[in-house]
Amino acid sequence: MSELSTICRTISATLVALSVASPAFAGGKTLACYQKVHQPAVYKTIHEQVVVRPGGVVHKTIPARYGQVTEKVLVSPAQVVARHIPAVTRTVHQTVMVRPKSVGWEWRHVHGKKTLCKVVHPAQYETRARTVVVHPARTVHERMPARYAHRTRTVVVEPARTVAHKIPPVIKTVARTVEVQPASAGWVQVSGKHRCH
């Protein structure tokens, strides 16, 4: 292509020189004839990939998950407690001798006459109530077992976390027309001498 351009430039320069030459050269014998030609530009369609949307990384926060757990907790520990037991009593009735049997003298009337007589006085008794202790008071020590209860509380099953998601870029193929060879103009020799007349 460069060689043809060189030839065309040489011919163009020669024709320009002849066109400004003296009229004495007009009407001479034809040696060669040239015609000006135009070469249109050459285009072609190419396909290329373009980024419609760039890729990136998106961070998404996943909240924590919670659950309920039931556990056994100590309400009060085991301990020894002293307990006082009062005495057990009851009332009993008992006959007691108030005055023992005795012998004494007393005046009596016997056949109308005052007579001193020796007499026996029997013992005298009476019933009296009294309180007796059936079981004496005492202190006993009792062991109290520990007391437990069940309690429900909220616990973290899975903590919150951040997850990174990679987003790929969006690419598409587009067609584009490009110029392969620009338009050009030049001179070509006309074949056959009869065309120059």
From TrEMBL:
<feature type="signal peptide">
    <location>
        <begin position="1"/>
        <end position="26"/>
    </location>
</feature>
<keyword id="KW-0732">Signal</keyword>
<protein>
    <recommendedName>
        <fullName>YXWGXW repeat-containing protein</fullName>
    </recommendedName>
</protein>
